[in-house]
Amino acid sequence: MATPEDRLAELGIALPAPMAAVANYVPFVITGNQLFVSGQVSVMDGALMKGRLGEDLELSAGQHAARACGINLIAQCKAALGELSRVKRVVKLGGFVNCAPDFTDIPQVINGCSDLMVEVFGETGRHARSAVSCPVLPLGVAVEIDGVFEIGA
Amino acid sequence: MATPEDRLAELGIALPAPMAAVANYVPFVITGNQLFVSGQVSVMDGALMKGRLGEDLELSAGQHAARACGINLIAQCKAALGELSRVKRVVKLGGFVNCAPDFTDIPQVINGCSDLMVEVFGETGRHARSAVSCPVLPLGVAVEIDGVFEIGA
Amino acid sequence: MATPEDRLAELGIALPAPMAAVANYVPFVITGNQLFVSGQVSVMDGALMKGRLGEDLELSAGQHAARACGINLIAQCKAALGELSRVKRVVKLGGFVNCAPDFTDIPQVINGCSDLMVEVFGETGRHARSAVSCPVLPLGVAVEIDGVFEIGA
Fold first, then answer.
1. C13 in contact with A at a CB cutoff of 8 Å?
2. Which residue segment(s) compose the domain that B117 sits in?
3. Mean pLDDT of chain B
4. Is C120 part of any domain?
5. With an 8 Å Cβ cutoff, are B104 and C37 in contact?
6. Is a pLDDT exceeding 90 seen at residue C153?
7. ipTM above 0.85, yes or no
8. Is A87 part of a structural domain of the chain?
9. CB contact under 8 A, A100 and B138
10. In the prediction, which pLDDT does C104 show?
11. Do A104 and B25 touch (CB under 8 A)?
12. In terms of pLDDT, which residue wins out, B64 or C19?
């Protein structure tokens, strides 16, 4: 059976070095059988994906940004767990989109991350989520997403 | 002793068919004895409750919208658990209100949902929560609320 | 070994009486070995720390506001647990900053709370977190932060 790592390879996704926390917080915490991953911003290949939906970013660019957050979330899971097959369930994603006040396609943006989770983890990747907006995000990025994962031994 | 379903009936609330997820996420995930419910937007009887507090919505309308989110959260609990008495505690609600930048009565809006939880679940319904604002919400709705619930067998 | 209470004393921090919930929600809920604390707003010595980053508040004032949220979170932990040494890990902080749309130093604001957690709890205080913005917060405060804590017997 294909592992999540196999599926990443099929998708042509090389996980980046997980971003280190730059302050007194950490990228992830494991408590019991839950892995909490810090909010991951839209950065790909070291480049910030900046902008505001409904202002200077198209929906498709927002979806790419959300997908980048997803790749960064998975990179943190890999760093935390060693093998991604230890993810027993993607439990909850919290999605925040940098939006102009008249942009309402927020769920469609976050789908860029949700779709990736199912592409990589299969049924295990189906998750609960919230999808909301912010007037701005750290460093001007387009999307930030945090996550809770159920893990096995 | 009255069940939560009995209290809903006394309140004249008929749970709607729970909203299905329309993408690669799901309305709820159970992990261990925790039920995570996706952010529920303010929709009642199939009609979106849209608008922005401090702009085109009065506080009372916002409270009704938050109550609608609460009804939708309970509908997801019912779908997940069969019997609402399996809810041992409403643990945490995350409330997001579509607000103009000068509207500060955000907690009062979310009370529309908090009050419902106690009306339906009694002491079990008393929960931790956050109550914050967003410049816009999915589909232009007034309120979105997600939840974590402790469940029993 | 110094307890968190000892470190608070060294830091010259007297925990305030924890803020009571003023509605049908509560300041905290314990479920299993997790303590969920409601979003704590920036209030210190009974005075609201109001304002919007990038508009009428400097970064340093925002950091002080985030630190106040942290003190209030710790006050709730103390109320919930009796002894702060029962906190086995600060698991996750959810930080919300009242921001103008061009203010991007959101993580630096929330560091005011993150730093406090490590000052008080040591390594146990290193946590996952999200750091996002809102167009406004309850009562016009500058910062709101909620938390999840792992607790022991």
1. no
2. 4-8+29-151
3. 96
4. yes
5. no
6. no
7. yes
8. yes
9. no
10. 98
11. no
12. B64
- Report if residue B145 sits inside a domain: yes
Kindly state the DSSP code that residue A126 receives in the 8-state scheme.
Answer: -
Tell me whether residues C128 and A36 touch, CB distance under 8 A: yes
Q: Identify each DSSP E strand in chain A by its residue range.
A: 28-31, 34-41, 43-44, 47-48, 87-98, 128-134, 143-151
Chain B residues 79-138 with a CB less than 8 Å from chain A: 94, 96, 134-138
CA distance B106 to B113: 12
Kindly report the average pLDDT of chain C as a whole number.
Answer: 96
Q: Do C24 and B135 touch (CB under 8 A)?
A: no
pLDDT at A19: 82
A16 in a domain, yes or no?
no
Per-residue pLDDT tens digits for B83-139: 999 999 999 999 999 999 999 999 999 999 999 999 999 999 999 999 999 999 999
CATH number of the domain bearing residue C116: 3.30.1330.40
Instruction: Flag whether pLDDT at C8 surpasses 80.
Output: yes
Chains that touch A (3 or more CB pairs under 8 A): B, C
The pLDDT value given to residue C18: 87
Query: What backbone torsions phi and psi does residue B5 show, to the nearest 5 degrees?
Result: -65, -40
Q: Please list, in sequence order, all residues whose beta carbon lies within 8 angstroms of the beta carbon of residue C118, skipping any fewer than 6 positions away.
A: A24, C125, C126
Q: What is the dihedral of CA A40, A14, A31, C129, to 10 degrees?
A: -10
Q: Which residues of chain C neighbour A22 with C-beta distances below 8 Å?
A: 107
Contacts of residue C143, defined as CB under 8 A and 6 or more positions apart, other chains included, come to: C41, C42, C49, C62, C65, C66, C68, C69, C95, C96, C97, C98, C109, C110, C112, C113, C137
Q: Please, which pLDDT band fits residue A32 given cuts at 50, 70 and 90?
A: very high
Distances C9 to C81, C84, C118 between C-alpha atoms, Å? 18, 13, 15
User: In total, how many domains does chain A have?
Assistant: 1
Q: Residue B40, by phi and psi: left (phi above 0), alpha (psi -120 to 50) or beta?
A: beta
Q: What is the pLDDT of residue B21?
A: 75
The per-residue pLDDT for C50 is 98
The H or E element that residue B101 is part of is none
